[in-house]
Amino acid sequence: MTELIITEKPSSARKVAAALADKAPVEKKNKQSSYFELTHNKEKIIVTSAVGHLFGLVENKKKGWTYPVFDIKWEASHKSSKALKYVKNYVDTIAMLAKKADKFTIACDFDVEGEVIGYNVIRFVCKKKDANRMKFSTLTKGDLVKSYENKLKHLEWGQAYAGETRHYLDWFYGINLSR
Asked: What does the buried/exposed string (b/e) look like for 104-124 if buried means 16 or more CB atoms within 10 Å of the residue's CB?
């Protein structure tokens, strides 16, 4: 059994891996993205990260510069922005590691945006409907170990739906009106 823990940013992945590792975690790379292999209480864990939002809302069928647009969908950020081309490396790494895992834990920031990031990674990259959820307020070893050992059995759905709703409203109201 292997558990995949996904954080919001690379620096957090390094801290989570160091905090949970029985011995020093082994850092590996896939393209530009790092991940860490370790054991915690003799259980195999892989820790990797997103780089913030890997997905954003885009028009489902772009028909030029029209408004209002209500037909939108989530899409990997690297597909809609050349400036975010590097995001593909993180998506590919998470997808590769997800194939090796049978348990999934989100360790993104415990706020609305962190929940949306984790939710999108779980459903679009890992192809899962739910995951465990670490809840912590600091990246100290004690807080991270306690958070891991008391992780929630599900995503924090209230925050996930609130965040997703905010993204939709930003599009429906903000983008449509600014056009």
From this structure: bbbbbbbebbbbbbbbbbbbb
Distance CA 134, CA 149 (A): 9
Query: Phi then psi for 158, rounded to 5 degrees?
Result: -60, -45
Residues 6+ apart with CB under 8 A from 154: 130, 131, 132, 133
> Is the Cβ–Cβ distance between 121 and 97 less than 8 Å?
no
Q: What is the overall mean pLDDT for the chain?
A: 95
pLDDT of 64 > 80? The answer is no
Pairwise pLDDT comparison (61 vs 166), residue with the higher score: 166
**Residue type for 179, please?**
R
Quick one: pLDDT at residue 159? 97
| Cβ count near 165 (within 10 Å) | 12
DSSP 3-state of 107: strand
Strands 72-76 and 43-49: unpaired
Q: Which of 150, 85, 97, 89 is nearest to 127 (CA)?
A: 97
3-state class (DSSP) for residue 54? coil
85 exposure class (CB count in 10 Å sphere: 0-12, 13-18, 19+): exposed
pLDDT at 179 exceeding the cut of 80: no
pTM above 0.90, yes or no: yes
